[in-house]
Amino acid sequence: MWDEIRGQVKRWAGASGTVTLPPNAIIISIIAHASAGGASCAFNDGAGGTATVPVPNGAWFAYDPKHKNNAVNATSNTIVFTATDSYLVEAVIPLGA
What we know:
Elements: E1 7-14, E2 17-20, E3 26-34, E4 39-44, E5 50-55, E6 59-63, E7 78-82, E8 86-94
Antiparallel strand pairs: 1-8, 2-7, 3-6, 3-8, 4-5, 4-7
């Protein structure tokens, strides 16, 4: 399925904070790490709500969707990393978007 997407790959990285995806962005990967407790990653759940995933102390969280997750159809195009010490978000901006 991923070989059917044509566009520019964009990446955002940091320690913690909010990533705002551009319209039409298709998420291909979200990765986060926490060295202390209380960390989380929150993003649109695809049903109009928010999924908040705890990132345990000393662990990684990785989300690699097996289907297209088009941010333009979501109620929010932000991903919020709280108390993480590193994150990486990869998305494709389709050609013509």
